[in-house]
């Protein structure tokens, strides 16, 4: 369902093949351990497939939450619980309705990256799409800053499109990055006074200091 | 010793003899031996059975419990209590053989008093003769001159033979035949009436003694206080009670008439320190165990501090009249006259003499016929009136049990067989606690419950019945209640309320079973040693086994790694638990974090916890290990190592 950069299949952890892993555990200790494991599984899965946005209704039928081999699946309420747990950990965020529109329009205009996830997000209702931070925005910001520093582009102006889709960023981690997440990372840089965003909706430019 | 050690059941109740029937229970009693309190036996329960009086100590039941056989009891008295002195029942043992001799040689024996408070009874009355030696009371009548001679005090009917020297008749000087003396000795020893007849010439009557010598009998001195040193006329010659001849004090028998003489030992003294110790609690001195008079037959007093003495006394009286211990090995009661009539009048070949002659099938038929006839007669005579029923109760019960067995054998039902086993063991109806055998008083209800609790514990832990064992060591309270009432055979049923209250007392009474309440409110009965940990261990071991044995059908997961999920049903079958118990145990194990659940189409299954915390620790360890490996590898790559 997501763009797969790596061709090899995702190595699922051991628990994924444990039938009881797909049932919500009433024991608090076990439940916490279960959430922790699910959270790390989701993050690892997203990192492997470079998923930035997850449409929960669609993801419920994906390999991630549905083990076809065992015929066991995580129920939607339990998925939501996992996401909530990740949100508290700073590893996920529900896309706000307004935000979602901006993000999807941006990514649509920006090209073919992560089309699958955005299409899913466009199709689903509000609160269904989750941003998965397998890197936190702060980490993304640091990565971009390091790239700008390395390539000596301080003081110059780059377009957002150039950052994610340009030839120069090919090979960096944030190449093909989701627009919404990128904007959050750039905003962090702006707040620190390391960058400035200007331009209109469609053609955003960033100047790094 | 009069008080014997008592064997207790697992539930700390007296172990009953065959055919023994419990008559009465009362708690909060203390024991006295003679005049003195027994220091270790001051708080306990007294069990009156048809054969014994048992004392079970509350604090150290295994150590200090004691019992005395009713057959050794000579008489018993009732004392109603006075101010701080509680009501007491005094039980006087039958005199020991040669106790008089013992009295002479042993110093430091205790002074006996019937009551701890001085009572104004006349001395004649007080000198009842319980310890008068039986040989002395026996007389033989001379064949020649018909003079009543005393049987010599050292004459032992059991040991006597033709060479035993026998004294000649006092009047005519002719030696008696051994059989004559033997008969006289035996008849006097087996004479049930303890009270002596003063007119009997051979009998020693204690009231002819001086008061000082009466004390030394180890009997009663109503005016004695233990602190007093008594030396009225010890120095003077010892007067023979029969012929009034003044003998030398060291002589055992009268020089003139041969009557046995009794000692003049001075009573012991009791230190004042001891007195102070005792006075703090209740009146009456405590027996000093350092005194060596253990095998001295002393009266035993049971002090009822919590009431119940009247019923105890009444029941004791009836038990003493019934003398059930005599029936223990006795042959069945003689057949009723009606049966004899039937047999004689009919003149059928069913008479015992002819029975032996028949053989073959005819003989078997005859046997069957006879048995049926006997049964008929037994039932007919037993139900004639209530009295008859009481006397032949044992046989009727046996008959009923046999019938029940035959009926069950025909139906061959498993459950009915189970019931039979229970009913069979329930024939010890005497062991059953009912409300009316428990003493009344302030805390009568709690006594009833504690007795019921002990009763239940016995029922559960009884190896012959194996109630708990068959249920896999755990049983719901409801099941137990049903089983227990069924075992009682439909009489004296216990109400659920009482049952629950009794079960809740197990913990306090330190019995080997315990009541456990699951989170859902289900109450179960378990052996005390069966803790949650033990249960979890056994469940885990079982789940571990499932890693080794392949499941019945193909499964999607790796059963070698995860084993398989178990339902409550599986668990119940595996451990012989009831379904409810299995469910609760699994939930308990889950709550402890040992199991985790899987809800699926096949229902709720439980797995060994592969999600839980311990696993995380393992995972983190592995990650740390990997990280360390990666660093090492990088260091190697850069050529540092």
UniProtKB/TrEMBL annotation, chain A:
The family database entries (InterPro entries) matched by this protein are listed as: ESCRT-II_cplx_Vps25-sub, ESCRT-II_cplx_Vps25-sub_N, WH-like_DNA-bd_sf, WH_DNA-bd_sf
Q: Where is this region: Disordered?
A: 96-118
- Some GO term, biological process aspect, for this entry: which one? macroautophagy
Q: Per the record, what is one GO cellular component?
A: ESCRT II complex
Q: Which residues form a coiled coil?
A: none
Q: Which SUPFAM superfamilies match?
A: Winged helix' DNA-binding domain (SSF46785)
- Keyword Protein biosynthesis attributed: no
Q: Which family does it belong to?
A: Belongs to the VPS25 family.
**The name this protein goes by in its record:** ESCRT-II complex subunit VPS25
TrEMBL record, chain B:
* Localization in the cell: Cytoplasm; Endosome
Among the Pfam families in the record, one is Vps36_ESCRT-II
- Where is it predominantly found? cytoplasm
Q: Name one GO cellular component term.
A: ESCRT II complex
Q: Which GO terms describe its biological process?
A: protein transport to vacuole involved in ubiquitin-dependent protein catabolic process via the multivesicular body sorting pathway
Identify the domain of life: Eukaryota
Spans annotated as Disordered: 102-131, 330-357
Name the chain's protein: Vacuolar protein-sorting-associated protein 36
Q: Which molecular-function annotation in GO is an example for this chain?
A: phosphatidylinositol-3-phosphate binding
Name the species this protein comes from.
Trichoderma gamsii
Does this entry carry the keyword Zinc-finger?
A: yes
Role of this protein: Component of the ESCRT-II complex (endosomal sorting complex required for transport II), which is required for multivesicular body (MVB) formation and sorting of endosomal cargo proteins into MVBs.
Q: How does it assemble?
A: Component of the endosomal sorting complex required for transport II (ESCRT-II).
Sequence similarity? Belongs to the VPS36 family.
Residues forming the GLUE N-terminal domain are 6-332
Keyword list (alphabetical) reads: Coiled coil, Cytoplasm, Endosome, Metal-binding, Protein transport, Transport, Zinc, Zinc-finger
